[in-house]
Amino acid sequence: MTLDIVRFIAEKRDGREHDEASLRGFVAGVASGAVPDYQVAAWCMAAYLRGLSPTETAVLTHAMALSGETVDLSSIPGVKGDKHSSGGVGDKATLVAAPLAAAAGVPVAKLSGRGLGHTGGTIDKLESIPGFRSALSIDDFVAQVRSVGLAVAAATERLVPADKRLYAIRDVTATVDSLPLIASSIMSKKIAGGADVIVLDVKVGAGAFVRELDRARELARAMIDLGRRLGRRVAAVLSNMDQPLGYAVGNALEVAEAAAALRGEGPADLVELSLELAGRLVTLATGEDAAAARRRLEGLLRDGSAAERLRRMIAAQGGDARVVDEPWRLPQAPHVREAAAPEAGYVARLDALRVAEVALSLGAGRRRKEDAVDPAVGVVLAKKVGDAVERGEPWARVHARTPEAAEAAAAALQAALALSAQPVPRPPLVHEVLEERLSPALVSDPRCLPRPDRVASGRSSPP
Amino acid sequence: MTLDIVRFIAEKRDGREHDEASLRGFVAGVASGAVPDYQVAAWCMAAYLRGLSPTETAVLTHAMALSGETVDLSSIPGVKGDKHSSGGVGDKATLVAAPLAAAAGVPVAKLSGRGLGHTGGTIDKLESIPGFRSALSIDDFVAQVRSVGLAVAAATERLVPADKRLYAIRDVTATVDSLPLIASSIMSKKIAGGADVIVLDVKVGAGAFVRELDRARELARAMIDLGRRLGRRVAAVLSNMDQPLGYAVGNALEVAEAAAALRGEGPADLVELSLELAGRLVTLATGEDAAAARRRLEGLLRDGSAAERLRRMIAAQGGDARVVDEPWRLPQAPHVREAAAPEAGYVARLDALRVAEVALSLGAGRRRKEDAVDPAVGVVLAKKVGDAVERGEPWARVHARTPEAAEAAAAALQAALALSAQPVPRPPLVHEVLEERLSPALVSDPRCLPRPDRVASGRSSPP
Question: How far is CA A371 from CA A134, A364, A368, B147, in A?
Fold first, then answer.
């Protein structure tokens, strides 16, 4: 079809709904480059201000998912899982939850982007492991999911190219913060990733992309709805991101902490969130009772099965699997400096965003796409909100490349800490979990992408 | 200043008002190319949907006017006039009204674009005169206004470059039809053109850019307000454009008709509108009583002074001034074919847009910027709305380059005609005239651009 792009933009400008064919034509033009940047930009602003209907969002998501390479996991027996986080500080939950779910019999296939922002993404964290290869061909990725039950690899440029271009334009035209555009961006990549069941960790709070619970809930619902329309079962865990998750913020430091959690020595919040996320993957995939799944996962954590699954994944991707038990094999920063509490009290606030900014200043994250991250540097907290501290007691340590950087970071870090003379309650970790109640027909065969003509109807299978 | 362009776009996206400095920074970035197309496009869509306040519109207009070369007419004694039409079919009123006003003692300095659309612009019409040069340097333009009292020249690329770029982007992003953006585009060029008093002919109807009287009135008021804020006295004539103005549609054909009007042989509607437009220029410039100005202009038409002024302008710009009296010296199309009335009746409708489409198909206009126009071709009506016709009587003639084109055009033209068995009243020509009542302080020295710091206050002079 030939799309009259000016008329298409005018349609959204006037608040009208696009028909499926023109929306697919637009996405094809975004992916191929046939629609120039300025027209994409004008449409993004119109969509930001006028909104997209659930049907439009589903068509957009589906068309973007099919705009490039897709992963076909259908040759692997069973229901395959994937996990996505909307991004948080110290969020290494994938490294714990994915091996847990895999150990419980749910093959986990996760393609992940590199972090652009304060701290590295999951791929950056894994690449701090000596020898680890994140660049797998799709064939190797699928083969590893089949043999190991677990693979975490870098998304290639060829995966969902329409979203890549759309996001790059949104980023520079003040149109990122649109709920349907965010939901379709995330879900198009999950759909292209090929898994049947998807658990979304939607972070809420000072250190998250979404700061209000209401908006996180709205985003979660939109993504669950997209899953329903596109034949994927989706659950969303709304988790607190006011303070960092666990204690470690920085790539190798986070791998070490995740490994500790898998060895039964991890921080309580990381373990708890990982059990929650893995539990949802298991119940979505198997229909198993939640309490039973939880008991099973706790057993797999205790008996070392989950840790073993991570070791096998690291080894399969060329990495040194000994890091799971011997964290000193990970890159170490040469300079460590303590941040001491200025007075006695209870930790009232540990501002995740400020901690992240300090980690970024140390080199743990990227300011621009082309920046390299330093795998060794970062921040390790010694306290969390609710803990008591003595005056002068170290409440965090910075791991830095130079003494000057360590000094500056330790000083800057103090702004992240707020103390209270009164005891402070520990904040909730998981706000709530959203999950669609599904009809049996949808559960029976969630494997394939629905035919395009089914997307717009809002049902991927007959009810 | 350095403008954070993403923040600037977000400001308009959220419906907030830009401050003057950032809006000026944006326009500078549009003119220089520092702001890329996609960010301009996103801003245009945000401005389209969120609107611009009168102050923002004035700052935008002023900044655009100053974004390139400007014309300084201050060395010419008296109050200088300019005239603009929002574009209509068969609209050759400039060729009559401008010489009239000049003959009445108001120097007229008009820079004009080339027509992009169904029929040529004023420059295209003038260029059908053998030898006529429309490309004048600004110095030559000003010198001719001083010596002849009248110059009509092509706007150069260096005049209002910010508007040129903004318009080119709006044109392909469905953001043309925004009232403040239309008003600022027109008025920025008038401000840069240097005249003190400006008469706007805002066309309303089937063959016009604006189809509803309400919207035309709103546009006219916005432009009058811009004039007030930027130290220009502006009147707006809202005129009917359901049927073509006069009988001729096509470049040389329109020059011939305008010359006939100046010789006292012109169609009544063209003469009437031209007297109205010239009259407003005279009253704005001199404060003369409207009825007295009208009588004076009728005399200048009758005694040949206005025709003489056009001859002098044509001669000054290298053209063959004899065309004013000897229209056969203009390019003639070799094939003329009549369109006959299919039955007897009264002309109920002469669809200006359809007539224009036929003229375009004959080659009188441009589909793309780079197209050449054929000066000789076009349509000449024999009837206007309200006239009686006999069955088989010619109601129009097409002037074409080939017999085939003539045949096809005459057939296509029939769709423009609608007949009624009952007598049809003649439609009004001028719907209304809008003009700001000005304070004496504003009248006293309307010559100079206000200082930038006065624009935002909404007054160009103390009250």
Answer: 17, 10, 5, 65
Compute the nearest-CA separation of A350 from chain B (Å). 28
pLDDT digits (tens, 9 = 90+) for A404-437: 999 999 999 999 999 999 999 999 999 999 987 5
Q: Would the CA dihedral through B187, B192, B198, B201 be positive or negative? A: negative
Is this model's pTM higher than 0.80 or not?
yes
Residues of A at the B interface (Cβ-Cβ below 8 Å)? 5-7, 9-10, 13, 36-42, 44-46, 48-50, 169, 172-175
| Nearest-CB residue to B10 (from A13, A50, A174) | A174
Sign of CA dihedral B271, B273, B277, B283: positive
What pLDDT, on the 0 to 100 scale, is given for residue A449?
A: 44
Longest distance between any two alpha carbons in chain A, whole Å? 70
**Can you tell me the distance from the alpha carbon of A308 to that of A312, in angstroms, rounded to the nearest whole number?**
6
* Yes or no, beta carbons of B173 and A38 under 8 Å apart: yes
Nearest CA in chain B to A166: B38
Query: What type of residue sits at position B289?
Result: D
Give how far A461 is from chain B: nearest CA, Å. Answer: 38
pLDDT tens readout for residues B124-158: 999 999 999 999 999 999 999 999 999 999 988 89
Q: Which residue of A lies nearest to B4 if distances are taken between CA atoms?
A: A172
Q: Which two tokens stand for residue B87?
A: 């574009």
Q: Which of B4, B38, B175 to mutate to test the interface with A (most CBs of A within 10 A)?
A: B38
pLDDT band at A156 (very low <50, low <70, confident <90, very high): confident
| Contact check, Cβ <8 Å, A41/B38 | yes
Domains of chain A plus CATH, in order, are 5-51 (1.20.970.10), 81-326+430-443 (3.40.1030.10), 332-420 (3.90.1170.30)
pLDDT in tens, A50-96: 999 999 999 999 999 999 999 999 999 999 999 999 989 999 999 99
Chain A nearest-CA residue for B172? A6
| Minimal Cβ distance to B172: which of A39, A44, A50 | A39
The answer to whether B172 contacts A6, with C-beta atoms less than 8 Å apart, is yes
* pLDDT computed for residue B207 by the predictor: 86
In terms of CA atoms, which chain A residue is nearest residue B48? A13
A78: Cα within 13 Å, side-chain hemisphere: 19
What residues of chain B have any CB closer than 8 angstroms to a CB in chain A? 5-7, 9-10, 13, 36-42, 44-46, 48-50, 169, 172-175
Mutate to test the interface with B, among A3, A35, A38, A176 (most CBs of B within 10 A): A38
B59 burial level (CB within 10 Å; 0-12, 13-18, 19+) = buried
Which tens digits make up the pLDDT trace of B9-66? 999 999 999 999 999 999 999 999 999 999 999 999 999 999 999 999 999 999 999 9
Q: What is the DSSP string of B172-186?
A: TTT-S--HHHHHHHH
CA proximity to B67, closest of B205, B167, B145: B167
Using the CB atoms, write b or e for A216-231: b if 16+ within 10 Å: bbebbbbbbbbbbbbb
Reported as type and span, the H/E element at residue A84 is strand A81-85
